[in-house]
Amino acid sequence: MATISARGLSIAFPLYHLAARSLKKRLLAKAAIRVKTDESNRVVVSALHDLSFEIRRGERVALVGTNGAGKTTLLRTLAGIYEPVAGELMVEGEIGSLIDPAAGMDSDSTGRENIRLRGLYRGMNDEEIAALEQDAAAFSGLGEFLDVPTRGYSAGMQVRLAFAMATAITPQILLMDEWFLAGDADFMTKAEERLARLVTGADILVIATHDMGVVRRWCTRVIKLEAGRIVADGTVEEVLGPAHAPEAAEEQA
Ligand SMILES: Nc1ncnc2c1ncn2[C@@H]1O[C@H](COP(=O)(O)OP(=O)(O)OP(=O)(O)O)[C@@H](O)[C@H]1O
């Protein structure tokens, strides 16, 4: 059963180029909350600090917060891209990740080759790979571009292909950054249909977003981050207020 559990989770990024002592001092004086020195005396940005939460099967969680609050860092940590510097993280379930469209894609290979590579990576047999290829090709609507190396794709084309691949097989846990829902109108309609199928499959969705419309439409729970810390965690109504007050909600995020 899909679950995510975090206890005292912290993430910090070393800023190697800021090791000069004078600069360090200046930075520390200005922003001592998030830019610190660690035990090895390196300057680090504290991206996430002491997060504890559980996400269970059936929950659709929005990560909200202002720029730099830590939403993408948390998504990437859940995806296993970043290693916590402190605390524990347990993620049970197969992850589908829509955080960076180019991630996991070989830009010298065509869209079709990338789909097949993804199938191989997932340990699929020939028949399953053929089905994945058919589904992802149809959903992405890339037509002849499917046989062009992906380095020649526009940003929107990359999103289409990444979305098609990540959602062709329903992952147990879908991690998504909001701009995956920012395609053209035709893609959006298809993407919403597909997401609806996916999220009603009672697995876990975690989406980082500034769009309170997306939160109210898709999510059952909101975790609000501020400067790398959780400042609110509850149902959509609890954190954002009633549905008729979207302006207030927009300000909060
Ligand atoms: N690779 C990195 N190296 C150094 N600092 C980083 C790195 N990634 C993120 N940070 C820092 O971590 C903090 C959180 O950033 P993050 O991108 O997670 O915020 P966010 O809430 O997703 O912001 P936005 O809404 O602007 O996308 C910021 O202070 C950022 O500067």
Automatic annotation (TrEMBL):
User: What domain of life does the native source organism fall in?
Assistant: Bacteria
> What keywords are annotated for this sequence in UniProt?
ATP-binding, Nucleotide-binding, Transport
Specify one Pfam family. ABC_tran
Q: Which SUPFAM superfamilies match?
A: P-loop containing nucleoside triphosphate hydrolases (SSF52540)
Q: Which InterPro entries does the annotation name?
A: AAA+_ATPase, ABC_transporter-like_ATP-bd, ABC_transporter-like_CS, ABC_transpr_TagH-like, Bact_Polysacc_Export_ATP-bd, P-loop_NTPase
Where in this chain does the record put each ABC transporter domain? 33-252
Any one GO CC term of the record: membrane
Alphabetically, the GO molecular function entries are:
ABC-type transporter activity; ATP binding; ATP hydrolysis activity
Name the family the entry cites: Belongs to the ABC transporter superfamily.
Could you tell me what this protein is called? Answer: ABC transporter ATP-binding protein
**What organism does the record attribute this protein to?**
Teichococcus rhizosphaerae
